Model the fold of this input.
Amino acid sequence: MAYNRENLLKRIIEVQDIVLEYKKKDVPQIRIFEKYIKPGYHISYSTFNEWLTIPAKAQLKQLQAEQERKAEIEKLQLDLFEI
Done:
């Protein structure tokens, strides 16, 4: 289990990148899972298939943008109290 959403999305992106790399070499998806994903990520085949359907890069980008906005707002609020 990932510690937070950002870490989960990063793991999903890693898995998706591995799959894309080996799909270019015409390796079947089940073999990619058995040989490269299962030993390193300790997830089930159904979770693996779920992860491949998630638009993780877009979600991570959106999450990071939200975190940046929150940090800016917090900084502005702190600046108000320093006056």
User: Anything to note?
Assistant: The chain is about 80% helix and 0% strand. The two ends are 44 Å apart (CA to CA). The chain has a mean pLDDT of 92. The helical segments are 5-23, 29-41, 45-53, 56-81.
